[in-house]
Specification:
The chain is α/β, with parallel strands linked by helices. It is 33% helix and 24% strand. The longest helix is centred in the last third of the chain and has 24 residues, at 170-193.
Length: 195
């Protein structure tokens, strides 16, 4: 959705340059050092950081990720018992809500598991047919090699945009508000449609 937001905003504000940067490992440091104006983050990872403003964006649901030819790919909602007899990858710096779900799942003797270093490694093992993984929906890049299916659980990952409290630029405020409004509208639409 970000490309659509950027395109619309730049049509209205052609003098403003919006340049997304996907540097997952150093993005927080770059932001805190003033090298970036906006940071996408998980709320609990930044709530104690001083001098930033948190803009609630959306709550990311958790999804099972499998290959399209996996029998689970036919389901529209995954439940714990669907994983019995399967191998699940866990770890890789998972946020707290995902870790809680992973720990609950691996307590089942019917679910095997092994650790994964990171999300890219997990996707590689999924593509190789070695295991399945549960991941936050915000990581879904809609690649046809994978099927992302919502997991039936209460856990969600609250996502926010962060801005510097000292940055009072009108264009930054408008762009941030536009992104937040866009995602709120999508969530309302999904609730109405039952998605």
């Amino acid at each position: 959705m970000l490309p659509e937001i950027i395109e619309r905003y730049q049509q209205e504000e052609p003098s403003v340059s919006v340049t997304p940067q996907f540097n997952y490992h150093h993005a927080p440091e770059n932001f805190l050092q003033g090298e970036r104006d906006i940071l996408f983050a998980i709320r609990n990872s930044v709530k104690q950081v001083p001098d930033i403003v948190l803009h609630p964006l959306f709550d990311s649901r958790l999804c099972l990720v499998c290959r399209p030819d996996d029998p689970l790919a036919e389901k529209t909602l995954i439940r714990e018992e669907d994983l019995f007899g399967r191998t699940l990858m866990i770890g890789g710096g998972s946020p707290a809500p995902l870790r809680a779900l992973q720990q609950r799942l691996i307590r089942h003797p019917e679910i095997s598991y092994f650790n994964s270093n990171d999300h890219d490694t997990s996707l590689t093992f999924v593509a190789a047919g070695k295991a399945i993984v549960i991941a936050p929906d915000f990581l879904n890049n809609h690649h046809p090699q994978f099927r992302w299916i919502p997991f039936d659980c209460e856990e969600k990952i609250p996502c926010v945009l962060c801005t510097h409290s000292s940055d009072k630029r009108k264009t930054l405020k408008e762009f941030t508000e536009r992104i937040c409004r866009y995602y709120r509208d999508i969530q309302v639409r999904n609730v109405i449609m039952g998605i």
